[in-house]
Amino acid sequence: MKAILFICHGNICRSPMAEFIMKALVRRAGAEADFSIASAATSAEELGNPIYPPARRKLAEHGIEYGGKTARQLRREDYAAWDLLIGMDRANLQGMRRICGGDPQGKLSLLLDWTEQPRDVADPWYSGDFETAFQDISRGCRSLLAALARSQSQEARLIPSGVPPFKQNIER
Predict the structure, then answer these.
(1) Of 42, 52, 139, 156, which shows the fewest CB atoms inside 10 Å?
(2) Rounded to two decimals, what is the model's pTM?
């Protein structure tokens, strides 16, 4: 089983979007039993709060279920519990390293580092552009899933790298 924890600043926009997009991709690939997926925050600002309404609306618009999520903070022990800890931007990555006490096993990365266009996922809390965030996060999750499929042994069930997009075309 591959355990993936997505992280952003408050755990109410980008990281829960990544959590539920990745869960949807894994479900569509028939590989739910092969993954544990969740999300967390580097800050304590939004602890216990639900997903931000515009992020919920964007997920719903694309047919992605998101129920029951409330913000939680990344903890030092999460480093041992998760195989991959994936941040949305460089500030998140810095906070992740601080909270986890470094990255001795190379588990920390940025989501879009898994794509051909590595960069930060812009924070829609500030930009208001939840569609671009959705597109970037979807692209990163599909690339991550494809990379994990390529790294599996020949005996394991492979997830096709061409996992189709959601209701709307998410390739730009």
Answers:
(1) 156
(2) 0.89
